[in-house]
């Protein structure tokens, strides 16, 4: 497969997620909800996660608006999150961030699934923030869950 064909395939996948986002909507009974914005581009995401007692993601949904990169990225992310523990989810976020910073090794990692379609975005520094917005929300969500667990309401 030539590089041009590959990138147009990726382009299609991004547009497909943008037009038909997965897991879009509110999540009644969410464990944590995080709002993240990227004012440079006008992107907004509200991420909802429902976790079980072992920090495993039972459901992940989002509401958002903005460019195709930001919305496709968070849509793809929610697909990957289901069934993962918070640690696994954070490892995914780290891997995706590496890819956005140009790591070719990360771009070949099958764990990223459809998220690999966004690897071309790493060539456009202003758009990297768009692609990372969902993962920023995820990292913030993990932080909040864990700070709650440390408190008196935990357990
Ligand atoms: Zn954007």
Description:
With 155 residues, the protein is α+β, with helices and mostly antiparallel strands. It has a single domain, classed as Sufe protein. Chain: A, CATH 3.90.1010.10. It is built from five helices and three strands, in the order αβββαααα. The chain has helices spanning 3-19, 68-81, 86-100, 104-107, 125-150, and strands at 32-38, 43-51, 57-65. It has a three-stranded antiparallel sheet, covered by helices on one side. A hairpin with a 4-residue loop joins β1 (32-38) and β2 (43-51). α3 packs antiparallel against α5. The chain is globular, with a radius of gyration of 15 Å. It starts with a helix and ends in a 5-residue tail after the last helix. The model has no long low-confidence stretch (mean pLDDT 93). The protein binds zinc ion.
What's this entry about, in short?
This protein is of the alpha+beta class and 155 residues long.
Topology:
Elements: H1 3-19, E1 32-38, E2 43-51, E3 57-65, H2 68-81, H3 86-100, H4 104-107, H5 125-150
Antiparallel strand pairs: 1-2, 2-3
This protein binds zinc ion.
Describe the main β-sheet briefly.
3 strands, antiparallel
Structural class, please?
A: alpha+beta
- Computed Rg: 15 Å
How many separate domains make up the residues? Answer: 1
Assigned CATH architecture: Alpha-Beta Complex
Q: What pattern of helices and strands is seen along the backbone? A: HEEEHHHH
- Alpha-carbon distance between the two ends: 51 Å
Bound molecules: zinc ion
Number of discrete helical segments: 5
Mean of residue pLDDT?
A: 93
The proportion of strand residues reads: 15-25%
Strand order of the largest sheet: 1-2-3
Q: What's the overall geometry?
A: globular
Top CATH class: Alpha Beta
- Residue share in helix: 40-55%
Would you report the number of β strands? Answer: 3
CATH topology: Sufe protein. Chain: A
- Poorly predicted runs are none
